[in-house]
Amino acid sequence: MREQVDLRQAVNAVSDVVQNRPRPLREFDQIHMKTGDMVLQSEMVADWADGKRLAFIGDGDAISVCVAYLNVRKVLDYGPSKITVFDFDERTVQAVKRFADRERIEHLDAVLYNCLDAFPDTTKYDRFYTNPPWGASNSGASVNLFVQRGIEAIGYEGEGMIVIADDDELPWPKEVLSRVQSFSRDHGFYVSRMQRKLHNYHLDDAPDLKSCNLYVSSLPDNCSKAAASEAASPDRLINFYGRSKELRIKYVKERKRLDYGMAHEDEYELIPLEESK
Ligand SMILES: C[S@@+](CC[C@H](N)C(=O)[O-])C[C@H]1O[C@@H](n2cnc3c(N)ncnc32)[C@H](O)[C@@H]1O
User: Fold this and answer.
1) Using CA atoms, how far apart are residues 216 and 188, in angstroms rounded to an integer?
2) Is the Cβ atom of 24 under 6 angstroms away from ligand 1?
3) Close Cβ partners of 218 (under 8 Å, ≥ 6 residues apart)
4) Domain 15-225's class?
């Protein structure tokens, strides 16, 4: 049995992480999860990956940072033993590294990586987590590329948590869920659990669209299926971030180090008292 979590401390810790999070770029499907859902999601991930090495394939939401921080702040007395974030946005990578450095979180790190390339890390992770582009315009092909990198990160053996759209009224999330489940099965994984319609997002054009946690687990002896990681073929990059939005960008580079929790100087102007008269 887990001890009861101090909700105030948990929300305040997640608030520290949100302050440090780069603002989302909509053209790459960066759409942040709402803060209340991040608190609940972080606890679930910490429990699921307790004592395990966990790879995040993309993580603009910063669930990775919440999970690690809740543990070092002793809000949760469980969580992964190692967390690595693989993301093509250098702002995210640097924000994770700076936060880990400032809060002395030794088991949290981030790597600049585009999932169109072969997976770079030879560490064997035990679990993967991904909240990828949701593949509305390519029947889930973008999700499946992120899932493939997750499967490679764990050497085809272990478990994954895939966070994707879940909506009974729309046709495309059902199509994507079905494609992701068959892709997982083709790689020796089965759906071991599904938590439906859990998370809300700051998504102005579809504020009611929710996502689920789809858990996949490897079949026995599945590591024998492991194949060398390779770059993705161009057909997998079509409509990657939505209709006519192919994956063409290698990295989002950080131009300037920003303190995201503070107003930026070009957002405002100070009018002295005497000039306002
Ligand atoms: C696509 S967003 C999905 C929405 C999610 N709620 C979020 O905002 O993080 C997830 C993460 O994937 C990253 N990402 C997008 N395209 C990528 C790529 N080609 N390779 C690696 N990471 C990528 C984004 O930078 C973001 O951090």
Assistant:
1) 10
2) yes
3) 154, 156, 157, 158, 159, 188, 189
4) alpha beta
Nearest CA to ligand 1 atom 12: 58
Q: What pTM did the predictor assign?
A: 0.95
Q: Which residue has the tokens 């060398």?
A: 228
Q: Are 128 and 160 in contact (CB under 8 A)?
A: yes
Assigned token pair, 256 = 């300037």
Please name the residues in contact with 32: beta carbons below 8 A apart, sequence gap of 6 or more. 21, 24, 60, 61, 201, 202
Q: Which residues pair with 163 in a beta bridge?
A: 213
Q: Give the tokens for residue 249.
A: 């960008």
67 touches ligand 1 (CB under 6 Å):
no
Residue with tokens 């669209």: 209
| Whether residue 183 has its Cβ less than 6 Å from ligand 1 | no
For residue 133, give the ligand 1 atom closest to its CA: 1
pLDDT tens, residue by residue, 195-251: 999 999 999 888 999 999 999 999 999 999 899 999 999 999 999 999 999 999 999
Rounded Cα–Cα distance for residues 32 and 61 (Å): 5
- For the chain, list residues with pLDDT below 70: 276-277
